[in-house]
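Re: Re: C-alpha cell formats

Sure, here are both.
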Amino acid sequence: MPVTEVDHLVYGAPDLQAGIDRIEALLGIRATPGGQHPGAGTRNALIALGPASYLEIVGPDPGQPKPAGPRWFGVDGLAEPTLVTWAAKASDLDVLVRGALRGGVRLGDVRSGCRRAPDGSVLSWRFTNPETVMADGLVPFFIDWGQTPHPARTASPGATLVELRAEHPNSEAIQESLGRLGLSLVVTKGTSPALVAIIESPRGRVELR
C-alpha cells in the first residue's frame, strides 16, 4: 500500500520499557519519549518512519491510576510486544465516519485527544475511537492532527517505512472493508491475524509484526 496513507503504526507492549528495548534491538534506534495519554492509563515513545509517519510504542503508564475500563490497544492483555493496529491519515473525520457507516463500516465516534510532550508542549488531535477494534486491528482508526505539528518531526530519526501489509483468515471480507474506506492495504490469507511492516533501519531491512 502507499505508505503515505499511514499516519502511524501502534506497537503495543505489556511494559513500555520492554517495548522500547525490543524495538531498539531490532532497528538499532532508541525511541524518543512521548508522553502520557491522560485518563487512558498509557504513555508512549516514538520513532519517525518518514516526514509524516512514525512508530508509536505504547504501554501502561504506572504514573497514572488504572482506568475504569481497558487501556487503549489492549496492552493489558498482551503477552509480548506486537504490532496491534495502525492509524490512517484523514482530515474531515465526521464526514468520513458517516460515509463509512453508510458503507457498513463502523468506525466509532470521533473523539479529541491530547498529551504533554517532554518539552512541555501540548499535542492535540481528533481521532476515531481506537477502542472500536475492527478486523483484529487491521482496519485502522483515523487521525487528524489539525494545527499540531506532526509528532514525526521530533521523533527519533533513522528508520523508513517501506511496506505495510496484513494477513488474516478472513482476508477477502477485510479487504472489502478497507476498500470502502479508500485504503489500499493488501490483506492476504493467513492462519492468524497479523499486521506486517517492513522497515529500513540502521540494522537493515526489518520485518515487524
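Second one below.
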Amino acid sequence: MATSEIAFDFDETKAIETILYLAKRISRSYKYKICKMLYLADKASLERYGRFISGESYSAMQQGATPSKSYDILKRIEKESNNDLRVTGNAVVALRDANLDYLSESDIECLDLTIAMYDKNPQKMYDDAHDDAWGKAWESRKGGKRSADIPVKSIAHTLSNYRNLVDYLTNRSAK
C-alpha cells in the first residue's frame, strides 16, 4: 500500500452488528437511512478515535456517501433469508438485538451520537451525507459510472482535526 492511501480492515460481523444496532434504535429503518447513519457514525468515529467502526469503505452514489460493503450485505440479505435481519424493498428489520460484545464503548458512543443528531432530522442527515468528500468523488466519476470511491483522506479532510488525523492515519498505515 502506498503511504498516501489510507484504509481499514473490514469486519463483516461487526458491520452486521452495527446495522442491527441502528435498525433497532432509529425510527423508520430503511436502507438509505441505515447507509447514511453508518457514514455519519464512521465520520464521528474517525474524528474522535482515528478509525471507522467496522472498517468500511465508502462510495459516492447519487443518494450520498454509501458504505460499499454494508450496502452489499443489505442487498445480499434481501435476496437470501437471514436470521439476523430482514430486508424487504427498502425496509430493514432487525430480527434480534445487536450483540454488544462486538461493539466497543466508543463505537456505541458514535452510533448514539449519530442517532441523536440525525434520526429526527432527515434534511440534516441528507446534507451531511452529501459533504465535500462525497461531492469531489461524485464529480470525479468517468464514463457514466454510477459511483466513485471516496478516499478516507478525503473524508478526514471534512473534519476539524484534519491535519492531525491525516498525519496519524498516514503514520499508522505506513507501519
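The mean pLDDT is 93. The beta strands are 58-61, 64-67, 85-88, 91-94, 147-150.
- S.
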